[in-house]
Design goal:
The radius of gyration is 20 Å and the shape is globular. By secondary structure, the chain is of the alpha/beta class. Helix 2 crosses helix 3 and helix 7 packs across helix 11. The chain has eleven helices and seven strands. The protein has a domain of 209 residues: Vaccinia Virus protein VP39 (Rossmann fold, 3-Layer(aba) Sandwich), CATH 3.40.50. The chain binds S-adenosylmethionine (SAM). S-adenosylmethionine binds next to helix 2 and helix 3.
Length: 310
Amino acid sequence: MSKWNPQEWLEASSLEYYLGTEEVTKPAGLKLLEQSGIISIQPKLSSHSGLIPSSSSTPSVTSDKGHDGEIIKVFDEGAGLGQVTSQLIEHLLKISNKPLDRYQILLGDHDDSLLSELEKRQQTFEGWSNVTEIEKLDGVALHKPDNTFDYLFGNFLYFLLSDPIKGLEESIRVLKPNGVLGFSTWAYSGPFHLLQHAIALLPNYPFNPNPPPPGGNWMHPQWLKQTLESKGMKDIKIEPYEFTQTAESAAEMSRKMHHVVKIVTSKWGSEQRELGWKVFEKIEDLLIREQGKGPVKITSVALIVTARKP
Ligand SMILES: C[S@@+](CC[C@H](N)C(=O)[O-])C[C@H]1O[C@@H](n2cnc3c(N)ncnc32)[C@H](O)[C@@H]1O
């Protein structure tokens, strides 16, 4: 990793720090696809209710979308490296043997380095070339007409936006009536807690009265439910999903935390470069102290949220 050193870590592009971290968000992305009903991995368990019971059953879109040869329009918003799309296409191709030409998938992101990687993937990944479109867009002001998509996924997206509620409203606006919104947030971020531990061990660091995300309301199921209800959404289902990320060594895990360290130290001004690097060193020390010099793991809990636009 070319820019993984004390002098340059802040200059790395989103692509440079996201490459190699795809496995972190993929499991939640797959859960999101499953809970939305666009794919079905296991037979539905009728006794398995959500953390917050919904007024009716889990949104199940496979049964009422795409009939009569209609195209199913999907929006992977804040697509990153296409973690949601790649799993959707793989599932449609290999598991459910669904005809891909019934789907149209838009991958949108605001980051140029990620968009150019997505364009490469569009040419090389199986199944992508015919069904995907890639666009630069801003989640708080989508240049898309109302009522466009059957499904919209935002895997670990909204809490990162400059105005998360505006972003949520925009997503709901572009969904068709009866369309399904699926997004994930952190209920407990293992990397974030490790990072707090590492920062607390620094003798001094800048005071920040308004810490950046992840955190706050978006971590709480009741707030999420109330917010979605206030926007008129139905069939709200919010499930905690625990998962573990692994790395071959403490050093590798510390590198995988590039993005979260960058966000959390973003208001440290000129001290971010040097102190931020010390944070990576502390993270590595802590992991070695607690888990040894071999492979390490961090456990997190995501909230998998789905809801239907009436
Ligand atoms: C934590 S990553 C998640 C990526 C991907 N959805 C996944 O499943 O891993 C958040 C993504 O949202 C994108 N993003 C952040 N702010 C955005 C905005 N205002 N508009 C569009 N995308 C945005 C980032 O560039 C990044 O790709």
